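Sequence in, structure out. Go.
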Amino acid sequence: MKEDLEMGEELMQHLRSRATELLLREEWNESVQAYSHFISLCQHHISHTHQRPDLDHLLKLQKSLCLALSNRAEARSRLRDLANALQDCDGALEIEGTHFKTLLCKGKILLSLNRYSLALDCFKAALLDPEAGLKCEALNGFLERCKQLEHQSRTGVFDLSDWVVNGFRGKFPELAEYIGPVEIRKSEIRGRGLFATKNVDAGTSVLATKAIATERCILPDQNEELADNIQLVMWKNFIDKVVESASKCKRLHHLLSVLSNGEDEDVLEVPDVNLFRAETEEESALSMGKPDMDKILSTLDVNSLVEDAASAKVLGKNSDYYGVGLWILPAFINHSCSPNARRLHVGDHVIVHASRDIKAGEEITFAYFDVLSPWRKRTSMSKIWGFQCNCKRCKFEEQICSKMEMQEIQMGLERGLNMGDAVYRLEEGMRRWMVRGDEKGYLRASFWVAYSEAYESDHKTVRRWGRRIPAADAVVDSVSKAVGSDERVLKAFMAGLKRRCGGGSGLVEMERAMKLARGVYGKVMKKQAMRTLIELGNHE
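Output:
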């Protein structure tokens, strides 16, 4: 028996050395296998040591087991097998509750899972260990990161100022997961939607989240067939990434199953928004079967977002690419032709913010396509997307576009009618038809091209019609109030400001520009950085 134990210990020593060597060489799969063999033998020896008590030998074995579990957790975390990595950490901490390496490893895993409060507890506990002194700088770095992300996740306050002012150089800013005052409900638009639970000012973030998977490429401009082939390859790679991620994480597998696949949307269960909060994760209670590829394909077809879209702004180097991704909670946001939200893409993260003031109980909506276009064109676009838009704006414009004068204005524009004349005729028509408030903004948005070109002209047209054509600022205000801020509206406002004030502008005018800009980009930067972004937009 003694000889068997000695042989077993020699094998354990060999396995431990081999596993450590593989870990240092970053051969993660092989390292996990070697450590698993060692851990199994170690647990077997501990059970026999309990039968023949030898306190010193038992403590030595437990110490070896603790370190092996910690190292296997490190290897598993590198393989993104995070659930099992956390189990290993918990196993090691059961043996030694203050084990520095394990606390550090667990903290990093929890941080990557966006569970900031729990990660912070691990880093604080590790700081109490005497070994922390040797790695104080790295540990303090993790603590500061965790505090910053925890604050972001709690408040929804993000600051991209330095990154923007520095011309988007360096790494993308690190952003936390954030879920603001929103909930999921049955939607009158379609299926389920995301709703504000309290009043939200324009520019305020309502959620921020990292993509489950993204895929990007540069599409050729001149070769349509090649571009289509590249997109097919890109889509396949994207699907593979989603499937791989779902196969490694019970929670993600479950969240994918909650999304619509385009069928029977009216009878789908309405999930609690807390399901999407990482801090309340309970993986052990979730089941995970084999991924249903047909369902995944239809789910991605319905819920994937293209980064460079009508309601989006891509910041940094990713703006040079065509990108697609899956962001779980934003996938619940429906389309409206009078949208109230936009999204800002920063790396693999998306920040969703109010593009105009949102009232409590109002559904949060994106523009899936260009809403600064006439009703008939938007109707055609909605058919391409596979739905019919029945928003308040579309219902109003469908009715008013039946008027002969509206049809004549549209036909005139198609035949080269002077933009100023078209604007005058539309404004006169709205006066006669008693069009007021948002409805006036809807029609101005529909004929935005005519308004913007009229105001960008040499002013002969504007002078010709005088006060019978509204000031550009009034049009900008009514359009942004009705359909939310848009880069083109902001650009038109800044161009008008430059024409009136030359190189400078007053405080009132600049504050109006900032309000519009916050609707476009969100409240995610200080004024200097916002000015930089406005200038970049004006030169695009």
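Check: The first helix runs from residue 2 to 24. DSSP finds 22 helices and twelve strands in the chain.
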